[in-house]
């Protein structure tokens, strides 16, 4: 017995939202690490670890926008912000817990036998993340609202054609803002970076996202093909028309 459109629509939104939320949350948590692109790939620059999986958020955002409109993107975006805040409040609470002495003792040295303070390491990593969270959420909200709005603008201008244009164009514009805002707020306003360091890392982050948005275009088309096959031609058109109609209201 074929599934009704309402059920398929619900299942699709649930899966896409799950992918979106878990990757956004992971990106926030691992974003405290800055790694050397030169040491890894022999290219100049430094990147935040969070940008590695951020392209998954780009693609998911564009797919949700395609089938559920700007409202669908903003709904899951605000839910994600609430869940990120919850996660970091829990993390903050754990940094206040007194460490067990045996835990400190068994982790008092690293693999080379050098003195190691695991409580200091835990505090340094996760409390740094609390500074990043303010910048991340600020940039995330601005970026998502901008991305969702620009996507629909390109969609209206192109008359529903050129998926790559609205997906890539919205990402490139929104991430130009996001890449700078998150680092400026997190590491300049609440951290100890110089403005030049912020610009340097933001510049590298943006060009990574730029390249990722271009290179992942085939993945976007593949995802569209799989979803269209799952929904069926008639249901796909109906869902996309609803997404466009919501923007016109």
UniProtKB/TrEMBL annotation:
Annotated keywords: Cell membrane, Membrane, Transmembrane, Transmembrane helix, Transport
Signal peptide stretch: none
Coiled coil, from the record: none
Membrane disposition: Multi-pass membrane protein
Subcellular location: Cell membrane
Predominant cellular place of this UniProt entry's protein: membrane
Function according to Swiss-Prot or TrEMBL: Involved in the import of queuosine (Q) precursors, required for Q precursor salvage.
Protein family per UniProt: Belongs to the vitamin uptake transporter (VUT/ECF) (TC 2.A.88) family. Q precursor transporter subfamily.
Name of this chain's protein: Probable queuosine precursor transporter
Lineage of producing organism: Bacteria, Pseudomonadati, Bacteroidota, Cytophagia, Cytophagales
């Amino acid at each position: 017995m074929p599934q009704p459109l309402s059920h398929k629509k619900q299942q699709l939104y649930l899966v896409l939202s799950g992918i979106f939320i878990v990757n956004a949350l992971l990106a926030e948590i691992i974003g405290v690490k800055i790694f050397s692109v030169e040491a890894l790939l022999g290219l100049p620059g430094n990147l935040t670890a969070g940008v590695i999986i951020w392209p998954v958020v780009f693609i998911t955002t564009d797919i949700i926008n395609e089938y559920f409109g700007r409202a669908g993107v903003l709904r899951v975006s605000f839910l994600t912000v609430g869940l990120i805040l919850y996660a970091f409040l829990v993390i903050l609470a754990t940094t206040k817990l007194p460490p067990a002495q045996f835990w400190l003792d068994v982790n008092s040295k690293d693999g080379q036998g050098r003195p190691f303070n695991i409580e200091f390491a835990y505090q340094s990593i996760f409390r740094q993340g609390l500074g990043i969270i303010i910048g991340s959420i600020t940039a995330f909200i601005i970026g998502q609202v901008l991305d969702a709005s620009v996507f629909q603008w390109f969609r209206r201008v192109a008359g529903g054609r050129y998926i790559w244009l609205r997906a890539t164009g919205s990402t490139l514009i929104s991430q130009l803002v996001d890449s700078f805002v998150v680092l400026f707020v997190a590491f300049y306003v609440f951290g100890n970076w110089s403005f030049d360091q912020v610009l340097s890392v933001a510049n590298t982050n943006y060009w990574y996202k730029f390249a990722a948005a271009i290179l992942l275009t085939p993945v976007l088309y593949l995802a569209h093909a799989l979803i269209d096959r799952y929904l069926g031609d008639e249901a796909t058109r109906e869902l996309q028309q609803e997404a466009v109609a919501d923007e016109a209201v």
